[in-house]
Amino acid sequence: MAQRFAADKKAPMDIRQHWQTVYEGRDVSTVSWFQPHLTSSLTEIAWAVAAQGLKPEGARILDVGGGASTLVDDLLELGYRGITVLDVAQSALAVSQRRLGDRANSVQWICDDLLFCDRLPEKVHLWHDRAVFHFLCDPEMRARYVDLVRKTLAVGSHLIVFSFGPDGPQRCSGLPAMRYSREALASVFDEGFVMVRDQLETHRTPAGVDQQFLLAHFLRTE
Ligand SMILES: C[S@@+](CC[C@H](N)C(=O)[O-])C[C@H]1O[C@@H](n2cnc3c(N)ncnc32)[C@H](O)[C@@H]1O
Question: What's the pTM?
């Protein structure tokens, strides 16, 4: 169910095929969103887990659109065990699985379109999204995303979203992307969430281009 429409609603596009191709036969350290270690994510996750009175091994974490990022490697190294990585591109997950070797067996992998996935884990303590939500240019798809977050996160759990900031790029990986101020993102997650932290960050791409990101950290309150 990966067929969707581009922002102009004219051209149907296959999200799965798009992302599958992006990661195929390519060195992942050359993609624009590559970071050797997702340090801001790791800091936010540690904070969210401690805020819930949990130890790393007891925290259930869902990384949506996790791609081939090393977040999972670093979380495993830090003692986290309840990690699920979801991505629409098997080629991306395969990169991480190869890199991790036997350690990949300690992770739950889901290859699916997040918005149409009926296998999301339950009772998740933390939903992490770096550079996925901002691709949702269609209000219906955004509403679907918010609905899924709401269903997956219980009251007291945390949501961490990295999107492009107000001065960020308008396209990424050949796709249109949204840019968000803290107010705009807070208004997306306005019912039942409180933004507890936000920060603008500059990501330097492997090609040396600076991109502005907004880090937004929410608590599910009702
Ligand atoms: C810009 S990359 C970011 C990857 C990773 N979060 C990181 O920081 O390195 C966006 C990722 O989201 C995945 N993705 C895009 N749309 C998706 C969807 N609807 N469902 C699941 N994954 C999706 C892509 O395959 C890709 O790996």
Answer: 0.95
